[in-house]
Amino acid sequence: MLRVYIDTSVIGGCLDDEFAEWSLQLMQEFRDGKKVAVLSDITLQELEIAPELVISQLKELPPDCREYVTLDGEAVQLARAYLREGVLTEKYLLDAQHIAVATLGRVDVMVSWNFKHIVNLNRIRLYNSVNLKLGYPMIEIRSPREVLDEKI
Does CATH number 3.40.50.1010 belong to domain 2-147? Predict the structure, then answer.
């Protein structure tokens, strides 16, 4: 089953006019058991200040369609490597941490609506160059729309 790391933007996207259609469909695919939602402690912490309607999207996912990964020391070091290599600046450390946790969690794909710092071809190449340089696997990063099951 496809293991999909989702960041906070995907959950918040459920209530955003621009992204709701695809975020809601992805959440439904998790509920239907077609995919597994991989969540990090970073995402859960960011959601602590989110509106209840956003938090409820996550609460509606049954426990058997969720997995959890954590920001450990190795992930902190990998995120710092992204900064050292100039992929992101210190201001976007949280984005680097999301990438690092997803990489170390060996997810099949990471999804986000953050097109500036995460779902960006040039940055994806840079994340992967750092990963390969340090002996980590490449990470697949897409928008939620790109990972949805096609309706025939």
Answer: yes
